[in-house]
Every structure is written in structure tokens, then in C-alpha cells.
Specification:
Helix content: 55-70%
CATH topology of the largest domain: Rossmann fold
Number of strands: 5
Strand content: 5-15%
Distance between the termini: 75 Å
Order of helices and strands: HHHHHHHHHEHEHEHEEH
Mean pLDDT: 90
CATH architecture of the largest domain: 3-Layer(aba) Sandwich
Low-confidence stretches: 84-88
CATH class of the largest domain: Alpha Beta
Number of domains: 3
Radius of gyration: 22 Å
Largest sheet: 5 strands, parallel
Shape: globular
Structural class: alpha/beta
Amino acid sequence: MDPTRKTRILADLKDGIAEMTPQLRQAAKYVIDHPSDVGIDPIRDTARKAGVSTYTLVKLSKRLGFSGYQGFREPFRQALLSSPEAGHDQIWLQAKQDRGDLGQVYAAAAGNALGIVARSLEHQDLETVEAMTAMLMQADRVYLTAVRASYAMAYYFHYVGRMALPSLELIPRHQNSAIDDLNDARPGDVLLAIAVTPYSRETVEACEFAQSKGLKLLLISDSEVISPRLRPEHVLVTSVQSTHDFGCFAGMVAVIEVLLAMLMHRGGAAARARIASYDKLREASSAYWTAPKKQ
């Protein structure tokens, strides 16, 4: 089985999703977001999870040139055989799980976090990370936006990333909307948006507005397809699968750490000098707590 077939199917889905009917678009988005589940689950389970009919999945398969759903699913199944999931066989996890109800909750959450970190890092394309790094470094200004839980990711990225990217601006500022803060943006600037499902209206509208002004759009998200109207240059996709009702951001943090490391490397001596100057400033202003000396 050609290992590139799954990649080509996903690329075809992404290229054609904007022209699909709403039901086909919903099915295509599920396949793009959950390729491993597509390889494991029978058609009825996939249809239920995607919120579409089995007929829609068959129709999607035929749209991509397959005679039926089984032929469409086969490349996803084969891909799983060569890339087993990691993070679920640690002895220490079993030891935690054997310690009652809370131990089972602990082990499930820990195993999930380890698994999504591994999957999020494994599935990144190095060329995409390098291209995103170069685009950020070369931009006149970089705007960074996120809201709600994703804002924590953006705040951390801004706090560290501005050492390598002095032009990095976290928006919205001062209780404004992100669109207000993008009003003066120009071609040559870049918008980096962080978003996970359910996607914030403010973030999607800010991305659309940035595109209308000629900005390049970059995304860090749980999907390559947030809105068919968005045309990002590059997307870093991370898993946010969770054992509770909110997303687990462990995988996204890991991917952000990789991107920060790339930016620091590209920032070179200038980034190191900026970090040193901030350290001196904080020491001079007693920003960090120190234990009192014994009399």
C-alpha cells in the first residue's frame, strides 16, 4: 500500500472542501480532523461521529474517485499499521490506575496527555514549521490573536516569542476587538491565530478581516479547516482530545514550544541579547522574590 495515498486524499479534501455541499463539507472536515478514527471505525460509527449519514460518506468517497467507502477508508487503515499509538503502555500508568477511582481518572488523563503530545509532535511537517518560522521572522509586524481558553496559549507564546520577534503584538488590546487592532495592518504583516473547536466568532472574523487587508494568515489549531473562507498559508494542527468536557492543551503547548525553539534559533545573537537585557531589567527592579538573609 502506497503510504502517500492517505496524504493525497487529505490534500484533495482540503482543496475541494469550499465547493462541497454542507453535508459533504461536514464529512470531509471530520475525516481531515480524525484520520486515525476513520481507519479504525466502521462506516456507521464514522457517520455517527461526523453527524452525517452513511450515504454521505459513500458520496464523499465517490467524489474522490473511489468505487465505495471501503476503498476510501483503506489508506487510513493501512497508515495505522505502520504508526502505532504511543503513551499507553507505561507500567507507572497501570500502577496509578490500580489505586481506586481517582487513580483511574489520573491514569486516563495522564495517558491521554502523553498520547496527544506524541501525536501532535509526530504529525508535524518539518517543512511547514520551517516555513512558518521564516514567515514570522520576515514579517514587518506579527499580530497574534486568540480568545477564551486559547488566549492562555497566545499569552505564553507572546511572552516568550517577543524575545525573538520584537514586532509581535498580542491582540485584542485594552478590551478592543481584534479587528480594531488590525485596522492599521498592511500587506507585509502576518496574523497568527490560535483556535480550537468550537471556534470563536471573533477569531474567525479577525482572520477574514486580515485576509481582506492582504495579510498572510497562519494558524495553530485542532484542524486545518476552521472555515472554508479562510486561506491560511500554513497550519500547525494539534490534538486537543480530552478525558473531560474541555480540550486538553498539552499537545498544543508542545507544538508551541517547538515553534518557539525555532524562532529563538533563527533570532540568534539578537534574541539572546534581548533576553539578557530583560533579565538585567528585572533584577534591577527586584522583579523576582528572594529569601531574606538571616540576621
